[in-house]
Amino acid sequence: MSDTVTISTLDGTGSFSAYLARPHGEPKAAIVVIQEIFGVNAGIRRKCDKLAEEGYLALAPDLFWRLEPGVELDNDIAQELETALCLMGKFDQDSGISDIQASINAARIMVDGGKVGCVGYCLGGRLAFMSAARTDVDASVGYYGVGIDGLLGEKDAIANPILLHIPTADGYVPADTQRAMHEGLDDHEKVTLHDYEGLDHGFATEFGERRDEAGAQLADSRTAEFFEKYLT
């Protein structure tokens, strides 16, 4: 069962929409699904629906609401990719983290104070790492997060488990960045990194040309095991 809900900002001065997918029966926990640069589009909604099928309450906040509420873009359409990159350039990530915390708070209420995880893709993968360091999320997963090497100074603030999926042929995350991630995080007791040899950015997208079926299924199975361990 899906719906659109409204979430108030932490300071109470605004509000934004979020796609909500509920499981049949009582949820095992809640998971905040953090968008790519393409907004809460069909692929992100499908991520939520699949998590609901697995027994979780899934919530995908519209993080671009301050720029363009309700944006839905497609990576495979050149003009829409250009629009997405433009929005990314204008996006305030600190405000995004604040909205993610507001979403975590709302999700926690929806599961009667139970555990809340987050999973993000691309921009959302970066924000998942930031959430692990800056919010009270119980467990985090990031797929092909961009620029995490520049966030390694925050790693000591990570108190709860985080799983990162790293495709080795990621056009947006070069080899030196991947190397810095491993050097900075391999010995962190709360961080697990998985490499996907030869795969590119967006390999686990639900729709479109970027998807690699075998890679997506492997990464998603690891994510499912991770959330089962740390949220239920």
Strand content: 15-25%
Q: What is the string of SSEs from the N terminus onward?
A: EEEHEHHEHEEHEH
Mean pLDDT: 97
pLDDT < 50 stretches = none
- The global form is globular
Cα distance, first to last residue? 21 Å
Strand runs, count: 8
Task: Indicate the percent of residues in helices.
Answer: 25-40%
User: What structural class should be given to the helix and strand makeup?
Assistant: alpha/beta
Q: What is the overall number of helices?
A: 6
Q: For the largest beta sheet, what order do the strands appear in spatially?
A: 1-2-4-3-5-6-7-8
Major sheet summary line:
8 strands, mixed
What does the model show?
With 232 residues, this protein is α/β, with parallel strands linked by helices. The protein has 6 helices and 8 strands, in the order E-E-E-H-E-H-H-E-H-E-E-H-E-H. An 8-stranded mixed sheet has the order 1-2-4-3-5-6-7-8, sandwiched between helices. Strand 3, helix 1 and strand 4 form a beta-alpha-beta unit. Helix 3 crosses helix 4. The chain is globular and about 40 Å long. 44% of the residues are buried. The model has no long low-confidence stretch (mean pLDDT 97).
